[in-house]
Amino acid sequence: MRRTEASRCGLVAAALLGASVAAGDGNPYLPIAGAEFRSALPVGQQSPQLVRSFLLQQHAVTNAEFLAFVRANPQWRRGAVPVVLAGGDYLAHWAGPLDPGPPGVDLQPVTRVSWFAAEAYCEAQAARLPYWLEWEFVAAAGVRERDARSDPAWRQQILDWYAHPASAPLLPVEQRVANVYGVYDLHGLVWEWVQDFNSLLPSDADPEKFCGGAAQNLQQKENYAILMRIALLGSLQATDTGRAVGFRCARDGENAP
């Protein structure tokens, strides 16, 4: 059931797409050079996979950017979206359907958006949500290297964020140092939707057991921080509107290295 939810509602979401909203220069699509990459998913897979060159937004979509989208596409405003495409908490933290809130929130990442809303936003920009392998590939980078997963300090920084109180206010985007690609905040700000979120776990997998089993596997020790994210995303429904879940968009790599 979890695997088919997005496809069942796809035609409804397509019908709700409206006018395109161009990406501003404040959140450019950065070129990501492809390479072979050994994913943390599925557990136990040893062969590297080829990640093709693509483009990824520099930071998560902000409240201001999503406001421009719902202004141009009123069918995606709070109160107008069918329940089959977004839960009741859709944009519930905004002060109003066209008001994200007090000064300062405009540069915070938008949250409480469903997978359908995130995908609609990206499609309106002639883009898409990144696939998990693409997201993981870029998220594996450190400040100076393309793959920092073996660095204990890099892993600990992510685990420290997981321990951060969920009620803490969100920071604006780009407050931390970018990684080697120039991409900000893949860790430490919000969880992010990916295109294939509902294919990350086997259909009968228990997310807590998935993480627990990985913790006992020495080969997966350096990937544990990423496996926690897999478990969370794999437990979501496409209509979920979590207070800590945002997104960014990607494009195919015609102009990528």
Walk me through the structure.
The protein has 257 residues and is of the alpha+beta class. It has one domain: paralog of FGE (formylglycine-generating enzyme). It has helices spanning 5-16, 63-72, 115-124, 132-139, 152-162, 207-216, 224-234, and strands at 29-32, 35-37, 49-51, 54-57, 191-192, 245-246, 250-252. A three-stranded antiparallel beta sheet has the order 1-4-7, with no helix packed on it.
What is the structure about, briefly put?
The protein is an alpha+beta fold and 257 residues long.
> According to CATH, what is the class?
Alpha Beta
**What's the helix-strand series?**
HEEEEHHHHEHHEE
Q: Give the number of DSSP strands.
A: 7
* Broad shape: globular
Largest sheet: 3 strands, antiparallel
Low-confidence stretches: 1-5, 7-15, 204-219
CATH architecture: Alpha-Beta Complex
User: How many separate domains make up the residues?
Assistant: 1
Number of helices: 7
Helix content: 25-40%
- On the 0 to 100 scale, the average pLDDT is 82
Q: Report the span from N to C terminus.
A: 38 Å
Share of β-strand residues: 5-15%
Task: Report the CATH topology name.
Answer: paralog of FGE (formylglycine-generating enzyme)
Widest sheet: strand order?
Answer: 1-4-7
Return the structural class: alpha+beta
What's the alpha carbon Rg, rounded to whole Å?
Answer: 18 Å
